[in-house]
């Protein structure tokens, strides 16, 4: 199997390049080889590589900046996946698209299911939802993996930001009214590989295609996440819980973006608890 992997320099893409090796030949492309903002280039790279599977973790992930760059965010998060899916269809290939908890508005009481209606609050979430819909509409074998609060020991993420800030400051003020599940980039990549191995074995029978929530078990707030980070790193920094209103940002965030991974865990082993995975990652 030949796999075209985008965004290989991103958090999830980096882990995927390793995790997908067991499934076949991985052709990893970065922005220099395939710029998702250049739809013609996206088409020609797929036609040149001729993959059996396209795995697309590349995305415009700057949530606040997206509010002032909606056209670029839409091209990368929605139009490029649409082109990838169209090209996959022409080749008879399958596709994995990643999406986000930010497709939800956060008003639900309890964990979001795949069947819940999305209602994104900002440009990033809206464009990611449009990307999901484009992949489904192409009618190809697909996995849409919605994840949340991704961190790892490389790239740009909340864990590394808070480690840096906690070393620089005596006190950090962090929102305590947004609930979600921090998810390690390695968990996402390893789970993707397991799902794909299963789908390949069953020759992508219809039961495999669809949306899956792929988040760590359990939940916390950004403040709770920060406390765990600071504790694990044995840093001496006071963590002060605040409300979202006290931390104004360009894009609104959902108050509750906890997602149930029950559908995925029916097919695979249970996903790790967020706190255990964080401990392992930081060790
Ligand atoms: N980060 C998070 O907290 C979450 C992410 N997700 C989703 O998971 C997926 C993976 O995210 P993650 O790995 O964390 O994201 P990162 O921001 O770490 O990486 C994004 C990748 O996309 C690439 N990229 C951005 N713009 C372009 C472009 N125009 N052309 C080609 N490549 C481009 C980046 O390349 P470069 O290095 O050159 O900028 C980078 O490799 C995404 O679909 C994201 O929406 C879902 C929930 C949470
Ligand atoms: C740095 C910092 C952030 N915060 C708050 C701001 C915000 O409400 C919350 C999260 O911070 P960030 O803006 O870094 O995270 P954000 O960009 O909202 O993260 C999101 O990224 C996209 C790509 C996703 O798909 C989501 O799942 C989610 O991970 O923490 C504080 O309260 N204090 C601080 O010192």
Annotated CATH topology of the domain at 2-151 and 183-216 and 260-265: Rossmann fold
What number is the mean pLDDT?
96
Number of strands: 12
**Order of helices and strands, N to C?**
EHEHEHEHEEHEEEHEEHEHH
Bound molecules: NADPH dihydro-nicotinamide-adenine-dinucleotide phosphate, dtdp-4-keto-L-rhamnose
Q: Cα-atom Rg, whole angstroms?
A: 18 Å
Q: Characterize the quaternary organization of these chains.
A: single chain
Main CATH class of the domain at 2-151 and 183-216 and 260-265:
Alpha Beta
**What is the beta-strand fraction?**
15-25%
Count of helix runs: 9
The CATH superfamily of the domain at 2-151 and 183-216 and 260-265 is identified as NAD(P)-binding Rossmann-like Domain
Calculate the terminal CA-CA distance, rounded to whole Å. 34 Å
Give the overall shape, derived from the CA principal axes: globular
Strand order of the largest sheet: 2-1-3-4-5-10
Give the % helix. Answer: 25-40%
* Annotated CATH architecture of the domain at 2-151 and 183-216 and 260-265: 3-Layer(aba) Sandwich
Question: Which stretches are low in confidence, meaning pLDDT under 50 for 5 or more residues running?
Answer: none
Pairing-aware structural class of the strands and helices? alpha/beta
Sheet with the most strands?
Answer: 6 strands, parallel
Domain RmlD-like substrate binding: 1-281
Organism: Massilia niabensis
Cofactor: Mg(2+)
Catalytic activity: dTDP-beta-L-rhamnose + NADP(+) = dTDP-4-dehydro-beta-L-rhamnose + NADPH + H(+)
